[in-house]
Design brief:
39% of the residues lie in helices and 10% in strands. It contains 7 helices and 8 strands. The protein has helices at 2-21, 43-58, 62-87, 97-107, 161-177, 227-235, 268-286, and strands at 146-147, 153-154, 182-186, 194-198, 210-214, 221-224, 239-241, 259-262. A hairpin with a 5-residue loop joins strand 1 (146-147) and strand 2 (153-154). 35% of the residues are buried. InterPro entries: Luciferase, Luciferase_dom. This is Luciferase domain-containing protein. Residues 209-281 form the Luciferase domain.
């Protein structure tokens, strides 16, 4: 009994020391948002526009008037869409005009229904996933609204700052307590934000064994799950597939079909459920059963 108590004290001390040594993660000051495209004209502006079109029509420049009617609203729409791209914050694609063009191109190929599970693939069918409906309760509220490709963000029902800080510190503490198996650093996929990596991944991906990453802005996560676990997460309302999480014959986007957004936790109960999903992602990437929940502080 004394040995057991000593072991518990050592584990608790190790966790406290790990948490004490972790830096406070800086928070992005601006939440991701989207603004609808609208054009509002005052009476004076409307009068000037009507007179301008009338003059152009009477001076045999009808084609120019038609071009203005088409291209001016189009230019305003593109400008608003570009601003919405910037409002999502930093992500895997640079926040530049070139990045906007790439994101716009990728959006053509986005999933039509991100709530539908992807079909299983042969190399996954040898073992079932970890998550079960019986132990993963349904999320209480309707799904939040999401937007974007890269970045892909949650724009309603933002997570709490307290939960975000607790989660990032728990990930860092967990990695520091298991340094031969796991590490935390900047996401290889997003190029921003904290990510958890497996040092000895059993699943091959293009992102150096990345398990999950947390977004500074909306406090949601992206992670790689077993297809069975993707199905449970979608059915219980805790997330959705990334817009580029698909495969079609030889065409395979970098993230693969089992890359999922997990909605931002807003309470201690939701935080512990999210931690359970991260545990499933860590098992999927490393083959090891982990206990991230033990690193979470009481809120």
């Amino acid at each position: 009994m004394a040995s057991s108590n000593t072991s518990t004290q050592v584990n608790t001390t190790t966790l406290q020391q790990a948490n004490a040594e972790l830096p406070t993660f800086s928070l992005h000051p601006r939440r991701p948002e989207q603004k609808p495209f609208t054009v509002t004209l005052s009476n004076r502006s409307l009068t000037v526009a009507a007179l301008g079109l009338a003059i152009l029509s009477h001076h045999r420049t009808l084609h120019l008037a038609r071009l203005l009617l088409v291209f001016v609203p189009l230019a305003l729409f593109v400008h608003n869409d570009y601003q919405n791209f910037l409002r999502l914050g930093p992500g895997g694609i640079p926040s530049t005009p070139q990045g906007y063009l790439k994101a716009s191109w990728l959006s053509i190929w986005a999933l039509k229904n991100p709530y539908e599970p992807a079909p299983a693939v042969p190399h996954y069918t040898c073992s079932p996933g970890l998550l079960r409906k019986a132990t993963l309760p349904e999320r209480n509220d309707p799904r939040p609204t999401t937007a974007g490709i890269a970045p892909h963000r949650q724009i309603t029902q933002y997570g709490s700052t307290q939960c975000f800080q607790a989660l990032t510190r728990a990930l860092q503490a967990f990695a520091s307590m298991n340094p031969s198996e796991f590490e935390t650093r900047v996401s290889a996929l997003e190029k921003h934000g904290l990510a958890l990596f497996s040092r000895k991944p059993t699943r091959q991906n293009r992102f150096q064994g990345e398990i999950c990453h947390v977004h500074d802005t909306d406090h949601s996560l992206h992670l790689f799950l077993h297809p069975d676990d993707v199905k449970v997460v979608l059915e219980q309302g805790w997330g959705e597939r990334h817009p580029m999480a698909w495969e079609w014959g030889p065409w395979k986007p970098a993230v693969g079909p089992f890359f999922v957004m997990i909605y931002a936790p807003r309470s201690e109960n939701e935080l512990r459920i999210v931690a359970k999903i991260i545990e499933a992602a860590a098992w999927n990437m490393s083959g090891r059963t982990v206990h991230l929940s033990s690193c979470l502080p009481a809120l």
